[in-house]
Amino acid sequence: MARTDVQGAVEGGSPRIVAKFGSKLLTSDGGQLDAAVLADLVRQVAALAADGAQVAVVTSGAVALGRDRLAVPHLQRDIADRQVLAAIGQSRLVERYDTLLHEHGLMAAQALLTRADLAQRGGYLNARNTIDALLRLGVVPIINENDVVADEELRGGAFGENDSLSALVANLIDADLLVVLSDVDGLFRSDPRTDPRAELIRDVEDIDAVADYAGPPGRGGRGGMRAKVEAARLATGTGTTVVVANGREPDALRRIVGGEALGTRFWPGSTHTESRKRWLLSGLGAGAGRFVIDAGAVRALRHNSRSLLPVGVVEVRGDFERGDIVAVEGAGGERLAVGISNYGAEEASQIRGRRSDRIEELLGYYYGDEMIHRDNLVLL
Length: 380
Prior knowledge:
The protein contains 15 helices and 13 strands. By secondary structure, the protein is an alpha/beta fold. An 8-stranded mixed beta sheet has the order 3-4-2-1-5-7-8-6, sandwiched between helices. Strands 10-9-11-12-13 form a 5-stranded mixed beta sheet, sandwiched between helices.
């Protein structure tokens, strides 16, 4: 695949893509999962992976498969019923993905998330580290909301289903591109179902200027265009480009990643680095946590863009938890950086000054080699 704007944003690395497949794209008019559509989408994911991209899939379809398996047509009317159907269908959905990916030499991994998981400091780091590791291993994460304990998707709120989950995942893994595929061509200035001259908006730089065109939540799907626009607002705010397009267009996903102007493209206002730096710096005064590091660690951070390892930490100050933003200081008290700690204060005190290969021995568990990973560290 030729070098694109998405690939160009990842100098020397693999582009990260979140592909969201909506319920109206994946199901037929009768509500059954459309096997041909799913197989074609997986084929495109596999082709992107073969070209060097890392792709995470946020998918609907569990309720449709659950309904088909249970064969009780009336069981679909309220939230509890839909949670039952999702619980029955989820394993079948992931099995379908895994079988189809296996045909292309790939593997699927299931990840069920809720907003509560990502709102908790430890949950956020665990999800980020797990999905990041899967992508680096060449595994395709198949992500859905955990409907048994979270009902936002099933309620179909304007900002509470798989559209917004896909934006949260894009933020979580620093995706370069989020592609939201449904049965609509993009964002129009008027309703194309009633206005044959409705104009498709190709590019959006200011979401506030087009938000009124989104309308109410859609029928059939759980979110509609309004949810997609709000998801685009969330994802673009932290540096991810978003495209909303019709997934039934031939080879839509690959064409979008290749730079073709399909659907509506929402442009980010800043880069991932700028957004993450602003977020980390905004939390600088939120806690009293401090790592005091030795001269070797100072050089590693300043000159080699390395992670902060326990061996370079000489003192741990303050009370903080895993996932909190902490400051990094030199022995003379100079402020060097801020970052997200992989370990709480008590844990950090036990492993400071030690080699990373002793962390599990000392703590009895292991959250990674780094006290602060370089991706979660901003130099001052």
